[in-house]
Design brief:
This protein has 436 residues and is an alpha+beta fold. It has 2 domains: 300 residues, Zn peptidases (Aminopeptidase, 3-Layer(aba) Sandwich), CATH 3.40.630.10; 120 residues, Alpha-Beta Plaits, CATH 3.30.70.360. It is built from 14 helices and 21 strands. Strands 1, 2, 3, 4, 7, 8, 19, 20 and 21 form a 9-stranded mixed sheet that branches. Strands 12-16-9-18 form a 4-stranded antiparallel sheet, covered by helices on one side. It binds zinc ion (ZN).
Length: 436
Amino acid sequence: MSEVVRATVPAQTLAEAVHAAMPMAQELLDALESHTGATKGITRTPYGDGEQYAHDLMADCADRLGLRHAVDPAGNLYLTLPGQDSHTPCWMVGSHLDSVPNGGNFDGAAGVIAGLAAIAALKSVGVVPRRDVTVMGIRAEEAGSWFSGVHGGHLGSRMALGLLEASELDTAIRTDTGQSLRRHLQACGCDPARIGEGQRHLDPARIHGYLELHIEQGPVLEQRAIPVGVVTGIRGNSRLRDPKCIGEYNHGGATPQAQRRDSVIATSELILAIDGKWHELETAGEDLIFTVGKLYTDPKLHSLSKVPGEVGFTLDIRSASPEVLATMRAFVIESASAIGARRGVKFDLGAFSLSEPTVLDASMRQTLCAGAAALSIPIAEIASGGGHDAQEFVRAGIPAAMIFVRNANGSHVAEEGMELDDFELGTRLLSWMVTG
Ligand SMILES: [Zn+2]
């Protein structure tokens, strides 16, 4: 993809055009904030008033820009700038317009607004991209915060891509209303009969690539003082939910140190060994984080003066790389065995769960990095810790990439702190990308 020639817009012209589109972006952000504000932060409930307001607002803006406007059976919104050749697979630029309860104004909406601002900029300088550019306003990405029952999350994109099981229409229940996804779709004028059983609105063969701009949800860009990130992948995880280290309870005064089978010391050694492995892989440039979120002795049996005979803990290992997850699983198993043999304890780890990482398209990432260099935009390549609709596009076989924008104070909180100057740089990169 990197060899594709992009429309010849001088970098300075593109920068000025995107800059000129920022008041429109700010107006949209302000309107969202004032109309979807909650007691704290903003609330745009999926298939509720706040999300619908956002969809209507984006559609109005697209009308003013003269874009084609469509809605699919799940209520996802499609706003299209026709390219030179509409038979060529299109660019899909998307993000979600719902939010978590009492969330921030930028998570999700920034990506849709960036798409509209990029199109406004291209139109203002008379650039007609070689392929259609469709901005997608996605429904119910934050389903994990709103719907209980059995469902696979990311409901809007999965419905569009034919990835939703038909049964999820009835088993996904919005917790604030007690109503099923099907009922909410019907109430919004959507068409659940055309959803599920592999029915899809989007044909992967008709999509050249999916691009999502999103605020970074962690502090990495902020700490490194870099405005824009090119996302390498979306982290998966491998977890041990209930591992145990079994040693032997004994007298804490009388048992010689060398003869103890001390589960606390053995578990501590294992955790520090994992920390050492993290350091080694981090130094080698690999993506890895891990958490021992629970670590406990048994309050019924432990005592200040007793050698601890059993420790329970949890282990959550996350990486954007499937290989790193596999390496860590093997490392933990081998280390537990070696430490157990040396210290006379037994680690009963149980089986690792596995949620595979999503590797974003290497060619698109490379093109984004080249574009950032050409446009003099400082970037860092970073992994995404949170899940995004982009992973569903990858699952459907569509090349996908993500642009992160620096954001202070975390996400899913009222205090999200994206600066418009940083958003402008991310939007400039996005607008350059869709001309190819
Ligand atoms: Zn989001």
